[in-house]
DNA sequence: TCAGTAGTTCTGGACTTATGAACTATTGAA
DNA sequence: TTCAATAGTTCATAAGTCCAGAACTACTGA
């Protein structure tokens, strides 16, 4: 759980994770080459995904040449009920407040 | 919010915060000279309190020679509904799982 | 004024994190 | 099979953050 909070305490990672949760379909790394109008190098992205994986927040599966990232909501919900939902909500509230005119992501 | 998660991503700080929330009465620094059976130097404690304060999680008031720390639940609940509750719950679940025979703290 | 208690600030070493360069893995085409 | 292209990972290192001892400030009571 310490790992979960640490993973989501980073603005880039929480945006990535919120993106993965929001899209029903799995997202590959390159979906996040820019996050909130900021360019993220691939090596950094790869580290971020690693941290999300190790925190148990996502699972990554190779499909051909790309990796598809899926959120592990159900497992986390079982271990820490309400936690993920509350964080994703808080993130949405915050990014809505930050950039009012444009929708989240 | 990033600050809130970062503050509570540390096992010592989340234990401290949970302690402050659990006790109705304000807690001074020295209440936490040991956290989960681990001795914490005063200077480190002071840093931890500073981080909790700057994240908006607590307020510290001097009363004579000591500082009393109060949680700012209500304000946070208003900004990020459910977040603090979910994290404190998750912490309780986790520390119960870790040391089953003994109660939280 | 002094001693004692409570907490803060400073500082340096240890640990983390971000990123460019070089790498591996997979695919599709020649 | 070889080659080029795409997608991600690993490595090295420079920059940043964190911990804890030493020295400090703030307040109280004698």
Largest sheet of chain A: 2 strands, antiparallel
Strand fraction of chain A:
15-25%
Q: Average pLDDT of chain A, to the nearest integer?
A: 92
User: Which strands sit side by side, in order, in the main sheet of chain A?
Assistant: 1-2
Q: Identify the biggest protein-protein contact and residues per side.
A: A-B, 23 and 23 residues
Gyration radius of chain A, rounded: 13 Å
Low-confidence stretches of chain A: none
- Rough shape of chain A? globular
In short:
2 copies of one chain form a homodimer. In chain A, helix 1 (2-8) runs antiparallel to helix 3 (42-54).
Q: How does this model look, in words?
A:
The structure is a homodimer of 105-residue chains. Helix content of chain A is 52%, strand content 15%. By secondary structure, chain A is α+β, with helices and mostly antiparallel strands. In chain A, strands 1-2 form a two-stranded antiparallel sheet. Chain A has a two-stranded antiparallel ribbon with strand order 3-4. In chain A, a hairpin with a 2-residue loop joins β3 (58-63) and β4 (66-71). In chain A, α1 packs antiparallel against α3. The two termini of chain A are 26 Å apart. The mean pLDDT of chain A is 92. The A-B interface holds A 1-2, 4-6, 8-11, 14, 79-83, 85-87, 89-91, 93-94 and B 1-2, 4-6, 8-11, 14, 79-83, 85-87, 89-91, 93-94. Chain A binds a DNA duplex (30 and 30 nucleotides) through residues 28-30, 40-47, 49-50, 62, 64-67.
């Amino acid at each position: 759980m310490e790992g979960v909070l640490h993973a989501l305490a980073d603005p880039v990672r929480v945006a990535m994770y919120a993106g993965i949760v929001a899209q029903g379909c799995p997202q590959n790394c390159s979906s996040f080459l820019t996050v909130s109008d900021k360019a993220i190098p691939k090596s950094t992205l790869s580290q971020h995904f690693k941290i999300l994986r190790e925190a148990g927040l996502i699972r990554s599966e190779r499909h051909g040449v790309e990796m598809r990232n899926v959120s592990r909501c159900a497992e986390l919900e079982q271990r820490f009920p309400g936690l993920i939902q509350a964080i994703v909500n808080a993130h949405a509230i915050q990014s809505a407040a930050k950039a009012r005119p444009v929708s989240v992501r």
